[in-house]
Write a structure and sequence with these properties.
This protein is α/β, with parallel strands linked by helices and 442 residues long. The chain is 45% helix and 15% strand. It binds adenosine monophosphate.
Length: 442
């Protein structure tokens, strides 16, 4: 299937050709026809699947066709009204969505803008005053500017709620409800979430009318390409092990995950003391600092980025060789999302995890979810506690240097069941862990 087969407007096809998109991704193949028919959509999918184009392209198509029919895009006397609203949890995602829509719509004359918190509102307000067709927003700033009278949702024809599960984790539920209440009842609604626990299903019902569903589970395919390994290491030796591994991979782009913002800062400081340059991105960092660090990392100028899960959601780096879980996540699905950051464009990636004695339960939950054992890494120079030695390495493997281990890993992955059933297992572990959402709002 090609984009042309989907019946999209010529300026959009031209833009996609210019971007080198030859074929629609699975979510685009499924979602675009539904959205072109103006049906509501529930998309179970996450960033990295081509989700932004899946919703962005049909919106651009409808707006472009309407503009063509009306023969105007709003001159001075006829200011553009916001006709499409995309709400997403973080600044990074908002910016990334805005950039993608600008790319896909660059020959359509459709204008978009992005608003988010953490920066002064003046520039955003001025852009809004000039009139935009599509607004990409984080919930807090959107409500704020609505309350100040700079934004009305009266003319919204297309409403997209993106990364809904993340939105709820970040405590945006009340903001979201307030936003939904202001939307006109006549609209096309799109709801995207990587996971579908009960509260998300309930929220989707509030937004969607008669809808169709599309489920894309990239985790399984992605995880198959990723070689995994776990090091048993005491909490106090994690930094030493990290330094050791980074020194072994001096030319690779490495994304290090920390469960907390404070932890991320501490890692950067310790790496700095060891002579390794890195930067942290998380909710407490200023917008400028986050964009600067992310930009340097994407360009390969900065080799090590330390991120919390929420901040990392918007990271789309093609040449990411290695993911290191400095802390194991207490929500097993997060592990799959994290390791899916590597092994994207390239044929394979490596994901290594540090597991201290308190994290053993998390590891067991993860292994249950992915239906495989994470290969135990061989002895490392920093095994100092009895606790580390308690669970000996079973058939130690070193993924990068051993072809044998690659084959073993692949065979095991091949036998794995679908992620869908794994997701239901995970709900139990999610309940067990509970203490989530430590990020700030954007
Ligand atoms: P997203 O899930 O929207 O964050 O997209 C992930 C990445 O895939 C982005 O870098 C997009 O530019 C890219 N992408 C989206 N659709 C296509 C496509 N049909 N062909 C090639 N790349 C794509």
């Amino acid at each position: 299937m090609t984009f042309k087969d989907l019946g999209l407007a010529a300026p959009i096809l031209d833009a996609l050709e210019g971007l080198g998109y030859s074929n629609p991704t699975p979510i685009q193949q499924q979602a675009i026809p539904i959205l072109l028919k103006r049906k509501d959509l529930l998309g179970v999918a996450q960033t990295g699947t081509g989700k932004t184009a899946a919703f962005g392209i049909p919106i651009l198509h409808h707006l472009y066709e309407a503009k063509k029919q009306n023969g105007t895009n709003g001159g001075h006397s006829n200011k553009r009204k916001i006709k499409a609203l995309i709400v997403t949890p973080t600044r990074e995602l908002a910016i990334q969505i805005g950039e993608s829509i600008t790319d896909y719509g660059k020959y359509t004359g459709i204008r978009n803008t992005v608003i988010f918190g953490g920066v002064k509102q003046g520039k955003q307000v001025n852009t809004l005053k000039n009139g935009v067709d599509i607004l990409v927003a984080t919930p807090g700033r959107l409500l704020d500017l609505m309350n100040q009278g700079f934004i009305t949702l009266r003319d919204i024809e297309f409403a997209v709620l993106d990364e809904a599960d993340q939105m709820l984790d970040m405590g945006f539920i009340h903001d979201i409800k307030k936003i939904i209440a202001k939307l006109p009842s006549q609209r096309q609604s799109l709801f995207f979430s990587a996971t579908m626990p009960k509260d998300i299903v309930a929220l989707s019902r509030k937004i969607l009318g008669d809808f169709e569903q599309v489920s894309i589970q990239p985790e399984q395919a992605t995880a198959e390409k990723v070689e995994q390994g776990v090091y048993f290491v005491s909490k106090k030796n994690k930094t030493k092990l990290l330094v050791h591994l980074l020194e072994e991979h001096p030319r690779d782009s490495v994304l290090v995950f920390s469960r907390t913002k404070h932890g991320a800062n501490k890692i950067v400081k310790k790496l700095d003391q060891a002579g390794i340059r890195s930067a942290a991105i998380h909710g407490n960092k200023s917008q400028t600092a986050r964009q600067k660090a992310l930009g340097a990392f994407k360009e390969g100028k900065l080799k090590v980025l330390v991120a919390t899960d929420i901040a990392a959601r918007g990271i789309d780096v093609e040449e990411l060789a290695l993911v290191i879980n400095f802390d194991l996540p207490n929500v097993s699905e997060t592990y799959v999302h994290r390791i899916g950051r590597t092994g994207r464009a390239s044929a394979s990636g490596i994901a290594l995890s540090f597991c201290d004695v308190e994290e053993r339960a998390y590891l067991r939950d993860i292994e249950k979810l992915i239906k495989q054992e994470v290969p135990k890494m061989p002895e490392h120079p920093f095994t100092d506690s009895d606790e580390d030695a308690q669970e000996p390495a079973h058939q130690p493997r070193k993924p990068r240097n051993s072809n044998q281990s690659r084959n073993n890993n692949r065979n095991r992955n091949r036998n794995r069941n679908s992620n869908r059933s794994a997701n239901s297992n995970n709900r139990n572990s999610r309940r067990r862990s509970g203490n989530k959402g430590s990020e700030n709002r954007s």
